[in-house]
Amino acid sequence: MQLQKKVKTANIDVPDNFFDNIQKYKVHLQKWNKIHNLTGARDEATLDDFIFDAIYPLSFLPPVKSLLDIGTGAGFPGMILAFALPNTKVTLVEPLTKRASFLQFIKADLRLDNVHIIKKRVEEMESETFELITSRAVTETKLLLELSKELRDENSMLLFYKGERVFDEVEATQGMEHKIIERENRHYLILGTKNSKIQQLKEI
What we know:
Blueprint: H1 3-9, H2 18-36, H3 44-55, E1 66-70, H4 78-84, E2 89-93, H5 97-109, E3 115-118, E4 132-136, H6 141-147, E5 157-162, H7 166-169, E6 177-183, E7 186-192
Parallel strand pairs: 1-2, 1-4, 2-3, 4-5
Antiparallel strand pairs: 5-7, 6-7
């Protein structure tokens, strides 16, 4: 199924320029990937799978004003979410120079005013509070919670893109409320307190 059809079928609302930006992003990524090996996704079908995986949570997440993506890499999920959420301030944290440079290039080329890129490890960031913190394939849940503790408060939600082993990590959620949404081989782990927007997740 084409990416556009999958997005429509999932009832994901994206801005009018989303697919134009996605196409430009894919062209640039494939060029950079030949030189810098930014991601293992090398063909268009795999890239489309990665892109849909990144934005699928928009089918159940409530709106947020600020988002932090830990370890964005070549852009999954943070940059893709930024394309879909033009009114959300999206901060991408990526310590590796080649990947951070690519993210900066995409930000400039696509004129993404809502994107801020930080070339640091997340634990080196100054304290700031984000409504939503995301991460895909970076590290285990317990460590992600430790790394993000100065970047969230009782109103923040966390969204971790996980595999089937997510159920082994639920005990590490430090008593936070959690929900797991499954799609094919992906498990989306959402964490929050009773004060957070986790209570506003849409039914899918």
